[in-house]
Amino acid sequence: MTRWDAVVVGAGPAGSVTALLLARAGARVLLLDRERFPRDKPCSEYLSPESTRVLGRLGGGVAAAVAAAAPARLRGMKVVAPSGAAVVGHFAGRFSYALPRTTFDTILRNAAERAGAEVRERVKVEDLLYDKGAVAGVVTRDAGSGTRDGWRARVVVGADGLRSVVARRLGAVRTSPPRRVAFTAHIADVADVADLGEMHVGPRGRGYVGLGPIGGGMTTVALVVPLRAVRRRGPPRFFEALDRFPGLAGRFDSRRVVRDVLATGPFAQWSRRPVADGGGALLVGDAADFFDPFTGQGIYSALRGAELAAACLLAALARGISLRSYARARRREFAGKWLLERLIALGVGWPALVERAVARLARRPDLADLLVGATGNCIPARAALRPGVLARILW
Ligand SMILES: Cc1cc2nc3c(=O)[nH]c(=O)nc-3n(C[C@H](O)[C@H](O)[C@H](O)COP(=O)(O)OP(=O)(O)OC[C@H]3O[C@@H](n4cnc5c(N)ncnc54)[C@H](O)[C@@H]3O)c2cc1C
């Protein structure tokens, strides 16, 4: 049996970028995905502005390919409270790309292959192989033939998203409130779409809606609702639910749905440790943690997390050092973002709090820009977490 340096499970942004960086450095990399690309992914499909820098660092024409494929550029975010009151924050003079995930993820998957990774699609990872307590490979099932195979590797990278099999097999998955699920669609000719992302918060129990242009006259729309509401009343009627938000009523024509509604969730799920106890595996992207889509930072976390993972893996492959430094690097990089993301995600469950914050921010455009700049990863999250800033937003 071939022994790979690394088997990367999942060819989304986290897995493809990890595979690309490892392969380019000379590692023998196998990149597996259970889907055939181009594949869809429920998402609001906006890349926070700082993602552009990571794409630039990847080289290999990736940033140019994304720029060429992404006619939509967002200048900031508009947040609309349940009453219809609104505030706009800007990305500190920068912009974010927005494009369909079918296109974006395929650019990254192809770049990994060009860098030397061997890519196998429609191969689902079902289990892990162990050797003396350390992860030593994966067990897969081929979606076409149904064949089960084992693939041995010096390291396994779990980049298999929210429902990660690798994370579950490593046994450290945690969840917490708020548990939400999302329904996403592509809709053509939505009225009044500008060069802004929009977040509309509903009354208690109704959740929120994120939307934005993704080029070609298409808008990506994500309805995010509490899991308990879906359990009680069943999945929402998509367009009826959108029409209940004051800033959305009458803007959609249900006959203009370009892609059927995709469901995903529940979120607020993460791994207690992003590194296997016995060594031999680590987690990156949503497989490591995904709290809530409101701040739209998941793709950036996947890309930046892949850079951190690749740096640590290359050191481990060359010098045999422990993967534990990856957990520390993630804490250093993401601790502020995790806190900001959680505070905002919890806060949007309290409509009165959202009304208050939107009213305050509308009077203080500098603070609105600060908050949107921090969620766009343009400035460090800690700038928005200073007690004085939080106090001015809320009191
Ligand atoms: C409603 C919603 C809106 C969002 N909006 C935004 C946004 O606007 N901006 C933003 O930055 N982020 C957004 N996100 C978050 C973003 O979608 C994720 O954070 C991002 O996709 C994470 O990338 P990933 O590579 O970790 O995982 P994924 O993109 O989920 O990729 C995982 C890959 O693993 C494969 N896979 C899964 N299981 C297996 C298996 N057992 N074997 C083999 N392959 C497997 C899958 O087929 C998939 O290709 C949103 C999320 C949701 C739910």
Could you explain how this protein is built, in words?
The chain has 395 residues and is of the alpha/beta class. It is built from 13 helices and 19 strands. It has helices at 13-24, 49-58, 62-69, 101-114, 165-170, 227-233, 238-243, 298-319, 324-347, 351-363, 365-375, 381-384, 387-394, and strands at 3-9, 29-33, 72-74, 76-80, 86-90, 96-98, 118-121, 123-131, 134-142, 148-158, 173-175, 180-188, 196-201, 208-215, 218-226, 257-264, 269-271, 281-283, 289-290. Helix 1 (13-24) runs parallel beside helix 8 and helix 3 (62-69) runs antiparallel to helix 4 (101-114). The model has no long low-confidence stretch (mean pLDDT 95).
What brief labels describe this structure?
395 residues; 19 strands; seven-stranded mixed sheet; binds flavin-adenine dinucleotide; alpha/beta
Basic shape = globular
Topology, number of strands: 19
Derived structural class: alpha/beta
Give the strand content.
Answer: 25-35%
Ligands bound, unique: flavin-adenine dinucleotide
Averaged pLDDT:
95
What is the count of helical runs? 13
Terminal residue distance = 63 Å
What is the helix content?
25-40%
Biggest sheet descriptor:
7 strands, mixed
Taking all Cα atoms into account, the compactness measure Rg is 21 Å
Q: Which stretches are poorly predicted, pLDDT < 50 over at least 5 residues?
A: none
